[in-house]
Design brief:
Elements (H helix, E strand, L loop, with lengths): L1 E6 L5 H13 L4 E4 L8 H11 L4 E7 L6 H14 L4 E5 L4 H7 L6 H16 L4 E4 L4 E5 L10 E4 L3 H10 L2 E4 L4 H17 L8 E10 L3 H18 L2 H6 L5 H12 L2 H8 L2 H7 L1 E3 L1 H14 L3 E8 L3 H13 L3
Parallel strand pairs: 1-2, 1-11, 2-3, 3-4, 4-7, 7-8, 8-9, 9-10, 9-11
Antiparallel strand pairs: 5-6
Helix pairs in contact: 1-2, 1-14, 2-3, 3-5, 5-6, 6-7, 7-13, 8-10, 8-11, 8-12, 10-11, 13-14
The chain binds coenzyme F420.
């Protein structure tokens, strides 16, 4: 099992660098930085982290093919790879529709766009002149003027077709989920894609990109997870809620509370223990370790500790290092 940590650059880059250094000292393997237009830029953040860390791998978690042309992405991640001494990873997914609506970008054919973009990126990473006339992506002989290195490509994916595609073409998959039930389905799809492409499914790093909340006091950990879990429930397809035995009607109530900014209701009874159990890795170090063991048994090979990480981020990073990574 490898360990990653996610940071959202809604926080200042200097603060993220402080946490990333701490994570490196605590034995984390990867740091993943999210990409949304309204936060600090992902590549600026990664470049700064490259200068402030030595061994931890540095990934976009995840960028997308709509706000950045694949050639620009290759150039950006190639530069991060160069300055970090080969520590870059490119996480890419179709992106967040809500932010694209705000930017006036239409989310056409996300699966095909991602597939064709990855094909182009591989060409750039191999130093090729890329000629493409895809359904969604076209290139007329673009080529990097420097060696980007062979940057590993991870896909952000949840849907069955996306997971299958990841099995066919990616080095790893970042799956926004925390419960073994969701991974049973995902691991099958990834393996099917890998087999279709004549690959060994074991060559694909399956990452649980999880809502994570750890504290020595389980109640505090739970309370810190509630708001993130509320957003996950509000954005989950009914089928996923049913899989976990969660009342689908609760989704509308939570969505309404989010829309009203009624955080009191969200911190109260609206977000239930069942929801926290389904959509986060949460509790004491022993609770978290037990869930990680279950995930590993099902085929998860990387756990990414995502927001909130814990009621106190610094303490949580140290707790994961000492009690989970150290004891792994
Ligand atoms: N998105 C961001 O914008 N920023 C982030 O920082 C970010 C981080 C992140 C981390 C992990 C993770 O798993 C996802 C993350 N995302 C982030 C979201 C990510 O970019 C994707 O939006 C999300 O993972 C994709 O969700 P999905 O796998 O459910 O895929 C969607 C597109 C879907 O509907 N998939 C279907 C499926 O079965 O997989 C396929 C739909 C399909 O086949 N569409 C056809 C096609 O070509 O696209 C078109 C059909 C037609 O209309 O003709």
């Amino acid at each position: 099992m490898t360990f990653g940590i996610e940071f959202v650059p809604s926080d200042p880059v200097l603060k993220i660098a402080h946490y990333a250094k701490l994570a490196e000292q605590q034995g984390f393997d990867n740091v993943w930085i999210t990409d949304h237009y309204n936060n600090r830029d992902v590549y600026t953040t990664l470049a700064f982290l490259a200068m402030n860390t030595n061994t931890i791998k540095l990934g976009t978690g995840v960028t997308n093919p709509y706000t950045r042309n694949a050639a620009i992405t290759a150039s950006s991640i190639g530069a991060v790879n160069e300055i970090s001494g080969g520590r870059a990873i490119l996480g890419i997914g179709p992106g967040d529709k809500a932010t694209f609506d705000a930017m006036g970008i239409s989310w056409d054919k996300p699966l095909s766009t991602t597939k064709e973009t990855i094909e182009a990126l591989k060409g750039f990473f191999e130093g090729k002149k890329v000629e493409m006339d895809g359904d969604m992506i076209k290139f007329g002989g673009a080529k990097m003027a420097f060696k980007t290195g062979d940057v590993p490509i991870y896909m952000g994916a949840q849907g069955p077709k996306m997971l299958e595609l990841a099995g066919e073409v990616a080095d790893g998959v970042l799956i926004n989920a925390s419960h073994p039930k969701d991974f049973e389905v995902a691991v099958e799809k990834i393996a099917a894609g890998a087999k279709k492409a004549g690959r060994d499914p074991k060559d694909i790093d399956v990452a649980a990109y999880a809502c994570f909340s750890i504290d020595k006091d389980a109640a505090k950990a739970k309370s810190a997870a509630k708001i993130v879990v509320a957003f996950i429930v509000a954005g989950s397809p009914d089928m996923v809620l049913e899989r976990h035995g969660i009342d689908v009607a609760a989704k509308a109530d939570i969505g309404a509370a989010i829309a009203k900014g009624d955080f009191g209701a969200l911190m109260g009874d609206l977000v239930t223990d069942d929801m926290i159990n389904a959509f986060s890795i949460c509790g004491t170090p022993e609770d978290c370790k037990a869930r990680i063991d279950e995930l590993m048994a099902i085929g998860v090979t990387q756990v990414v500790a995502g927001s909130p990480i814990g009621p106190n981020k610094e303490k949580a990073i140290k707790l994961i290092g000492k009690e989970i990574i150290g004891g792994n």
